[in-house]
């Protein structure tokens, strides 16, 4: 991440800027190059209620504005990089989002496949005092319901190597560590099949030629495409 001389007041960030920071942080977590095109694509996965313009000209305009505010810089290869101040603001945004997901699931009893959308509605309005109280009420969680680490928590990575589900050996049993949450349709499928953090999954078949893996969970057997299986993380037993 790049340094920048400006100091950013998180209270003055717009809701749009906060959503861009969230997207940039998640792209970084997933090791996806943060080009304007990739950022635009990720923004499309956010709830429509956020009212974000996702055309490339709109995204470029917002990125330039955030660059002037000292939140990010552009590399020579068009990759967008968070400044030190931008990273601090992004971590704060991710923390509020993932605590909000925990709040609506663990305390309000909301269904898992609705948590991501509802968290987006809450995250922008959570003050530092409310954030601290939610954290305390939840017992200081270290991950969101989908396995994403909560910044500034006592999160520790698993002892065993974390690998993509598509790389788990055929015939093996694994423990799910993290699942993607941005795609609502996919998330509903994963919830229905119980492909969720801390759940066991058996790999019945893994076929690169067919482009699918067949898994067995407590809900039975089902096929998952290789691209999706590449975004689900697990530890092999």
C-alpha end-to-end distance: 35 Å
The number of distinct β-strands equals 8
Strand line-up in the sheet with most strands: 3-8-4-5-6-7
Q: Mind telling me the CATH superfamily name of the domain at 162-236?
A: Ferrous iron transport protein A (FeoA)
State the order of secondary-structure elements, H for helix, E for strand.
HHHEEHHHEEHEEEHE
Largest sheet: 6 strands, antiparallel
- Computed over alpha carbons, the radius of gyration is 18 Å
Structural class: alpha+beta
Helices, strands, pairings?
Layout: H1 15-29, H2 36-43, H3 56-68, E1 72-74, E2 80-82, H4 84-107, H5 112-123, H6 128-137, E3 163-164, E4 173-178, H7 184-192, E5 200-207, E6 212-217, E7 220-225, H8 226-229, E8 233-236
Antiparallel strand pairs: 1-2, 3-8, 4-5, 4-8, 5-6, 6-7
Helix pairs in contact: 1-2, 1-4, 2-3, 4-5, 5-7
């Amino acid at each position: 991440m790049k340094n920048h001389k400006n100091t950013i007041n998180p209270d003055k960030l717009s809701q749009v800027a906060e959503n861009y920071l969230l997207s940039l942080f998640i792209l970084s977590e997933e090791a996806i190059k943060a080009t304007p095109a990739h950022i635009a694509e990720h923004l499309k996965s956010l709830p429509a209620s956020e009212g974000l313009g996702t055309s490339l000209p709109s995204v470029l305009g917002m990125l330039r504005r955030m660059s002037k505010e000292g939140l990010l810089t552009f590399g020579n290869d068009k990759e967008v990089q968070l400044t030190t101040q931008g990273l601090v603001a992004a971590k704060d945004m991710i923390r509020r989002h993932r605590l909000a997901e925990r709040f609506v699931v663990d305390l309000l009893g909301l269904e898992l496949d609705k948590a991501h959308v509802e968290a987006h509605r809450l995250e922008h309005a959570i003050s530092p005092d409310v954030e601290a109280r939610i954290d305390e009420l939840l017992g200081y969680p270290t991950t969101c319901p989908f396995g994403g680490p909560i910044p500034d928590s006592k999160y520790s990575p698993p002892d065993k190597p974390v690998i993509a589900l598509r790389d788990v050996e055929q015939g093996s049993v694994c423990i799910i560590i993290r699942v993607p949450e941005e795609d609502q349709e996919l998330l509903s499928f994963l919830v229905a099949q119980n492909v969720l953090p801390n759940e066991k999954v058996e790999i019945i078949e893994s076929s690169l030629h067919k482009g699918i893996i067949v898994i067995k969970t407590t809900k039975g057997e089902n096929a998952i495409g290789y691209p999706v299986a590449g975004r689900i993380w697990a530890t092999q037993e």
